[in-house]
UniProtKB/TrEMBL annotation, chain A:
<dbReference type="InterPro" id="IPR035906">
    <property type="entry name" value="MetI-like_sf"/>
</dbReference>
<dbReference type="GO" id="GO:0015419">
    <property type="term" value="F:ABC-type sulfate transporter activity"/>
</dbReference>
<feature type="transmembrane region" description="Helical">
    <location>
        <begin position="20"/>
        <end position="44"/>
    </location>
</feature>
<comment type="subunit">
    <text>The complex is composed of two ATP-binding proteins (CysA), two transmembrane proteins (CysT and CysW) and a solute-binding protein (CysP).</text>
</comment>
<keyword id="KW-0812">Transmembrane</keyword>
<feature type="transmembrane region" description="Helical">
    <location>
        <begin position="195"/>
        <end position="216"/>
    </location>
</feature>
<keyword id="KW-1133">Transmembrane helix</keyword>
From TrEMBL, chain B:
<feature type="transmembrane region" description="Helical">
    <location>
        <begin position="117"/>
        <end position="140"/>
    </location>
</feature>
<dbReference type="Pfam" id="PF00528">
    <property type="entry name" value="BPD_transp_1"/>
</dbReference>
<feature type="transmembrane region" description="Helical">
    <location>
        <begin position="160"/>
        <end position="178"/>
    </location>
</feature>
<dbReference type="GO" id="GO:0015419">
    <property type="term" value="F:ABC-type sulfate transporter activity"/>
</dbReference>
<keyword id="KW-0813">Transport</keyword>
<keyword id="KW-1003">Cell membrane</keyword>
<dbReference type="InterPro" id="IPR000515">
    <property type="entry name" value="MetI-like"/>
</dbReference>
UniProtKB/TrEMBL annotation, chain C:
<dbReference type="Pfam" id="PF13531">
    <property type="entry name" value="SBP_bac_11"/>
</dbReference>
<dbReference type="GO" id="GO:1902358">
    <property type="term" value="P:sulfate transmembrane transport"/>
</dbReference>
<dbReference type="InterPro" id="IPR000957">
    <property type="entry name" value="Sulphate/thiosulphate-bd_CS"/>
</dbReference>
<dbReference type="GO" id="GO:0042597">
    <property type="term" value="C:periplasmic space"/>
</dbReference>
<keyword id="KW-0574">Periplasm</keyword>
<dbReference type="GO" id="GO:0140104">
    <property type="term" value="F:molecular carrier activity"/>
</dbReference>
<keyword id="KW-0813">Transport</keyword>
Length: 284, 302, 335
């Protein structure tokens, strides 16, 4: 990697810090046993169909529409979280206000709440007779049982990823730097955009990637709020379930493998971008 | 420390609490109206997306009053599901904690080829649909799976029993702690460790006395999140559980069963326990802040 | 590799614990469909008492409930159920064909094609029937919103779809094309396709979506009891479908566990007068005519058709309509 040329620090695995071999060994073993080998099963199973078979499954209009919805809605939800997540984290770390600790705690709710419960709760809020839905209905806005509902559910489950990756970095961020910038005559906006943002940006990208990845695969909460109409509000994981209901394991794994591959490529891209921005971002 | 009027000038470096400084120093803070609008927007967002669902869970749970609420929780099937959920989390979280620290250590303290690839592989379970996460164990351990016949011949129960549930939980929560630590440790760099090592500390001492204090809050978040998700996982566990009442139902599955029986308030009563986990986070964090508040303040200066 | 060993030991330990519990009293596991849970809550204790009285032996019956096909899949993939009970014969066939866990002639092992009970699809409408829904034809009218679960993922949805198809076909003198047109316009009126019957009920009753809900007869009383006694009315269409509830011993599992004898007694008990009465009390139609008559007030006269007769066979109905790329998919893809 190009970072090796960075001055002032030795960056080879043979640095003074010990434990590389054993930790990497443990990580790779665990990763292989728990994740990679089991996931390989998906690819082996779908490979039974051959390229033509996989293509036939994935290129059907219904699957394409579902993939488009899953990835598109996940992207929008992750973007919403990428805007509001850092804002929330910033407010928690830097400001004092009544009820702060409570709100801080509530952030983890989407993890703890079983996805089905989240789906039910969100549906009851946003359905036309729900607490929020009743106000949207007269405006002609339908959330529950439409693709907007999918985005809402995905935003819900993804939010903690962004907040919880940005928050610790903000907490650790050195305020001296901000003070220095201010002393050097930078106004607040310049300080934020040129000192704080670059520090937080890698973490933000990570949070974005995770929220996105999680939303793409989400099933439990979405089926309650989506409406599940083929070609309109049917998500890809539901199609996997439908294939399984037809005892079509190969077809199910073909969709799963396609989703996995796309997600993985996107994750790899974002993580490479993250590494690049971290090196470029002037971390000291 | 007990005396707030400590003479700061006698300390080296001067230990000045931050918050009041920020209040006073406008150059590194925002005008009051900006601050309060930001707080307002953040709270509005959280209220819409998090608080209202939380309130609706508790409203439904308490619809029939406190008596039925507690009755729903101490019901034998509900209790056995709580027990199973605790067992699964008690196995999954420590294992993923070990992985998380280990993976974060090699990723952030060393440079090597394929690092982004490794990080992406660690992220992978997040992007795997819970449905698929359950399916992979069916493909392996199912009767027609790769290892299924062997496992069945030896009378080892994995699928539709506790081990399958534990495996699925480990898979789904696999990246949490690693992912919490990696950005934090990246931001911190390796200078502190290099310094400790050059002063003669060994690797373990360096980790224990230098790295760990710096990452403890990230570590705590990671463990809490991992635990929350481990207890709340529905989709993957649903595939491998078999839904045997009183035996292989975890809390989320029990909730689904109750909901499907139109026992809405009982379903939400069990759900409120899981929602309460988020409030446990609050408790643990407050306790640690109270207990180690001084260290935390010092830790920020590292 | 050490890790592997640890996991294996762990797995074995759990296996042993599970195994040890089993040795004490014989246990049956009944993997059943979703809406049978109320029935089996009543039925199992009565059978356990009956068995104890006849043999002096204590037994335990564990229940697992889920979507019918999901349960069939779990059994095929290794869920050690001695008994599989379903709301359609197709899923039992799957256990036989894809899992080879029970013999292909399972339907001949017990009376009435191994189906001790049946149910049917009715309409639930809002109190007073404001949209004036009387028969299938009204469901395809514009302005009527129909809640029905996804035929791809629920037996309930499948039966509703087939009943609508058969009604339209008969009305148009056997014209399949007209049937397809009718079913297409009916599903245009469906705003939400829940994955299961109970989900559809919640959408209809709790979220106030739709003018009519298509559901099993045995669900109707439960809906009224649990979700509002004076909020709904029932409409009986001029033609509806007979939904048999077959039950079978999963031979391979039962013989391995040595529970075949108990399992046989368990299924036979479904046909006993006691068992038939429990069906009737849960609004599932018993096959014993005397008991059906005794509960006639619960079970109005119906004009029903049989899926095997109307569509050739269940397998054929499945492959024509619900398989990947089948009629149902085409309807939604506008082909």
């Amino acid at each position: 990697m190009s970072t090796a040329s960075k001055p002032g620090r030795r960056k080879s695995p043979r640095s003074a810090i010990p434990g590389f071999g054993i930790n990497l060994g443990f990580t790779l073993t665990y990763l292989s046993l728990i994740v990679l080998i089991p996931l390989a099963g998906v690819f082996i199973k779908s490979a039974g169909l051959g390229w033509d078979g996989i293509w036939h499954v994935v290129s059907s209009p219904r699957v394409l529409a579902a993939l488009q919805l899953s990835f598109g809605a996940a992207l929008i939800a992750a973007l919403i979280n990428a805007v509001f997540g850092p804002l929330v984290a910033w407010v928690f770390v830097r400001y004092q206000f009544p009820g702060k600790r409570f709100f801080d705690a509530v952030i983890d709710l989407p993890f703890a709440l079983p996805t089905a419960v989240a789906g039910i709760a969100l549906t009851s809020l946003y359905s036309p007779n729900g607490w929020i839905g009743q106000f949207l209905e007269p405006l002609g806005i339908k959330v529950a049982f439409t693709p907007i509902g999918v985005i809402i559910a995905m935003t819900f489950i993804g939010l903690p990823f962004v907040v919880r990756t940005v928050q610790p970095v903000l907490e650790e961020a050195e305020k001296e730097l901000e003070e220095a910038a201010a002393t050097l005559g930078a106004n607040r906006w310049q300080t934020i955009s040129q000192v704080i943002l670059p520090t937080v940006f890698p973490a933000l990208l990570t949070g974005f990637a995770l929220a996105f990845a999680r939303a793409v695969g989400e099933y439990g909460s979405i089926i309650f709020i989506a409406g599940n109409l083929p070609m309109v509000s049917e998500i890809a994981p539901l199609l996997i379930i439908i294939k399984l209901e037809e005892f079509d394991y190969a077809g199910a794994t073909a969709i799963a493998a396609t989703m996995l591959t796309i997600s993985f490529v996107l994750l790899l891209l974002i993580n490479s971008l993250q590494a690049w921005s971290r090196n470029r971002g002037g971390r000291k | 420390m007990s005396n707030p009027a400590t003479d700061y000038s006698l300390q080296d470096p001067p230990k000045i609490p931050f918050e009041p400084l920020i209040e006073r120093n406008s150059s590194i803070s925002e005008p009051t109206w900006v601050r309060w609008s930001l707080i307002f927007v953040a709270i509005l967002f959280l209220a819409l997306f998090l608080l209202l669902p939380l309130i609706s869970v508790f409203t439904e749970a308490l619809r029939n009053g406190l008596g039925p609420y507690f009755a729903a929780i101490v019901e034998p099937d509900a209790l056995s599901s709580i027990k199973l959920t605790l067992i699964a989390a008690a196995i999954a979280v420590p294992l993923n904690l070990a992985l998380g620290v280990s993976a974060a250590w090699c990723i952030t303290k060393f440079e090597f080829r394929g690092k982004s690839l490794l990080i992406s592989l660690i992220d992978l379970p997040f992007s795997v649909s819970p449905v698929v996460a359950g399916l992979i164990y069916v493909l392996i351990f199912g009767r027609q799976g790769y290892l299924g016949p062997w496992v069945m011949d030896h009378d080892i129960k994995i699928l539709f029993a506790v081990p399958g549930i534990v495996l699925a939980t480990i898979f789904v929560t696999f990246p949490f702690i690693a992912r919490e630590l990696i950005p934090l440790m990246q931001e911190q760099g390796t200078d502190s460790e290099q310094a400790a090592l050059s002063l003669g500390a060994n690797g373990w001492q360096t980790f224990w006395h230098v790295t760990l204090p710096n990452i403890k809050w990230g570590l705590l978040y990671g463990v809490l999140l991992c635990n929350a998700r481990a207890m709340g996982e529905f989709g993957a566990v649903s595939v491998v559980s078999g839904h045997i009442r009183g035996e292989t139902n975890t809390m989320p599955l029990q909730i689904e069963i109750l909901y499907n029986e139109y026992s809405f308030s009982a379903a939400f009563a069990v759900a409120s326990l899981l929602a309460g986990l988020a409030l446990v986070t609050l408790g643990v964090k407050s306790f640690l802040e109270w207990r180690y508040g001084d260290e935390l303040a010092a830790g920020r200066k590292h | 590799m050490k890790k592997n060993k640890v996991l294996l030991t762990l797995a074995v330990a759990f296996g042993l614990v599970a195994g040890a519990a089993q040795a004490a009293t014989p246990e049956l596991l009944n993997a059943s469909y979703d809406v049978a849970r109320n029935f089996y809550k009543d039925f199992n204790p009565v059978f356990i008492a009956d068995w104890k009285q006849k043999t002096g032996q204590d037994i335990r019956i564990n229940q697992s409930h889920g979507g019918s096909t999901k349960q069939a899949r779990a059994v095929i993939d290794g869920l050690e159920a001695d008994i599989y009970s379903s709301n359609n014969p197709l899923d039992v066939n799957a256990i036989s064909e894809k899992g080879r866990l029970l013999s292909a002639d399972w339907a001949k092992k017990f009376p009435n094609n191994s189906s001790p009970s049946w149910s049917t699809i009715l309409f639930v409408v809002r109190k007073g029937n404001p949209k004036g829904i009387k028969d299938w034809g009204d469901l395809a009218r514009s302005g009527v919103s129909v809640v029905v679960p996804n035929p791809k993922t629920s037996g309930n949805g499948r039966y509703s779809y087939l009943a609508a198809w058969e009604w339209a076909k008969r009305k148009n003198g056997g014209d399949e094309k007209a049937a397809r047109t009718f079913v297409t316009s009916l599903f245009k009126n469906v705003p939400v396709l829940d994955t299961g019957g109970r989900g559809a009920t919640t959408t209809f009753a709790q979220r106030d979506i739709g003018d009519v809900l298509l559901t099993f007869e045995n669900e109707v009383r439960l809906i009224k009891d649990e979700l509002g006694p004076d909020k709904f009315d029932v409409v009986i269409p001029s033609l509806t479908v007979r939904a048999d509830n077959p039950i079978a011993i999963v031979d391979k599992v039962a013989s391995k566990k040595g529970t075949t004898k108990i399992a046989q007694a368990y299924i036979n008990f479904h046909y006993s007068d006691k068992g038939q009465e429990i069906f009737a009390n849960n609004d599932i139609r018993p096959i014993n005519p005397a008991i059906l008559k005794k509960y006639a007030s619960r079970f109005p006269e119906l004009n029903v058709f049989d899926v095997d007769q109307a569509f050739g066979s269940w397998n054929k109905a499945q492959s024509t309509h619900f398989a990947d790329g089948g009629t149902f998919d085409q309807i939604f893809q506008g082909k």
